[in-house]
Specification:
The chain contains 11 helices and 8 strands. With 287 residues, it is an alpha/beta fold. Helix 1 crosses helix 2 and helix 3 runs antiparallel to helix 4.
Length: 287
């Protein structure tokens, strides 16, 4: 990311006092883009941003322990939801909220808790405990390899070990032809910390049916046609559609889980009309 183009930094304080920060670029209605379990606000949206900053003010927060944000020992699902909610509320106007993979739960939680969220778009959200057991087992096996490499200090190997758990061979090849692994490898320790706490967490989750029932903003659920974990993400899509009042599902042709990196124009073509419509309605009603 060219930080000269992102000199402005927005900061908020989460419920437990942790500072959550992210760069800001663009002009127009507010759009908050939240990285997934892997990555941070510094790297996750680099390829997608050129398709958004001419029409939105794009905010790129990192959750605790990543990017520009402060750290805290507690990385439980509810704390990460609170990070996103605090950041959204601090902007002071209606916002569109974009999530990806592991951040699906956090952005849905923020949409349930905040009146500021006008619309939510999520590419392949992860919901713990919903369907696709074989797919989830594949991802779990990859995470074991990631953990082993990271324990030896081999973060680049850990980044590469993650990909077979969630990407088909053609997507892996496309990512490895770029600087993706080198840029994203520093985020491996934060991902392992999050996953380690998530799997033992037994409290209420933002994706529990009761919580999802509080989401009133329209929600767009995106799934790649070529995603490796198709059964898992289809089950998540069905689950969310059952519990979110205004859910819309769309399959993106010819892409997989890392579409925001490898096919940003395809993602933008899906989310921009949806967000434009919702943000226009929200802005008009607030005047």
């Amino acid at each position: 990311m060219n930080t000269n183009e992102f000199a402005r930094i927005h900061r908020a304080i989460s419920a437990d006092g942790t500072e959550i920060a992210g760069r800001v670029a663009g002009q127009g209605p507010a759009l908050v883009l939240v990285h997934g379990a892997y990555g941070d606000g510094e790297v996750a949206w680099t390829e997608l941003l050129p398709h958004l900053t001419d029409r939105y003010t794009c905010y790129l927060p990192s959750t605790r322990g990543r990017g520009l944000s402060a750290d805290h020992p507690d990385h439980s699902p509810l704390r990460l939801k609170e990070d996103v909610t605090a950041f959204v509320d601090s902007i002071g106007e209606p916002v569109g909220l974009v999530g990806w993979s592991g951040s699906g739960a956090w952005v849905l939680g923020a949409a349930a808790d905040s009146d500021s969220v006008a619309a939510v778009a999520i590419h392949e959200p992860v919901v713990i405990g919903v369907g696709g057991e074989d797919d989830f087992a594949r991802l779990g096996a990859a995470m074991q390899q990631v953990g082993a490499a990271a324990a030896d200090g081999r973060l680049l190997d850990a980044a590469r070990a993650f990909l077979p758990g969630i990407c088909p061979a053609n997507e892996i090849a496309a990512l490895e032809a770029t600087s993706f692994c080198e840029r994203w490898a520093p985020g491996i320790p934060a991902m392992l910390q999050l996953v380690g706490q998530d799997v033992v967490y037994r409290g209420p989750r933002p994706t529990d049916p009761e919580a999802l029932g509080q989401v009133t903003a329209p929600v767009l659920l995106l799934r790649g046609e070529q995603t490796l974990l198709g059964i898992f993400f289809a089950a998540v899509e069905d689950y969310l559609a059952q519990h979110v009042a205004d859910a819309h599902a769309r399959q993106l042709p010819g892409v997989g889980h890392f579409a925001p990196v490898l096919a940003p124009e395809t993602v933008a073509a899906a989310v921009v009309p949806f967000l434009d419509s919702a943000l226009h309605r929200a802005t008009s009603s607030s005047c």
